[in-house]
Target: Palmitoyltransferase
Amino acid sequence: MYQYDHILYHPNTICRTCQSPKPARSKHCSICQECIPTLDHHCIWINACVSQSNLIYFDSLLLVNFVSLFYVSVRSGLLIKSLNQNFVTFLKYSSSDKTALISNFKTVRKNLLTLFLLAFCFLLVMTWFVYTQINLIMDGMSSNESDKWFAIHSLIYDHFIYKIDNKYYVITEDSKNDGTFNKFNSINFYDGKTYSFNQSMENYLVESPEQIVNIYDKGSFIDNLKERWCL
Ligand SMILES: [Zn+2]
Ligand SMILES: [Zn+2]
Model:
């Protein structure tokens, strides 16, 4: 069980959809219709939720697919190249029926080209998947958390996030626009209350994402990978 970071996850939160308590790092999956602890995402390819309970298998699947598709793309590409180069010479010295040979050559080349194009297109997709997961491991976050952090970082860049008494708040649009800077919502969107503070707010503005720590990031790729695979 993870501790609540009070930024993305807050204690005593009840899921609005399935009404069960939400553990830190969990998310409700609308396809599986339940809150999944440490959910990364619901994968449409395996039609199941990907979370810490199966991430090691999911990563293995990505890697095996990536290596296989890379191998097939290179092998079929090289075969097409050598077939094109050698066929003319082969044809010149062959005593067999040349029309039949050319027809067979075209069929084989067409099939190989189809194989190459399919493998190469899927390789591009798989490369993107592997790249995304490597970035997530480096950042120590799940796909679900990455979306949440993106939203929070956007709010920071737009000067909406304030840290007051060790808690994070989002200034309301009205209060920001009218220059009063005295109406805030908790960063916990389940809270629903409006807060106001007496002091001047200038010193409490969070100016860059580096000022907010992701407590689930263990600090290195290897340590995050161990955490991700529960090793
Ligand atoms: Zn739920
Ligand atoms: Zn699911």
About this structure: Residues 125 and 131 are 10 Å apart (CA to CA). The two ends are 15 Å apart (CA to CA). The chain has three domains: 1-53, 55-139, 158-212.
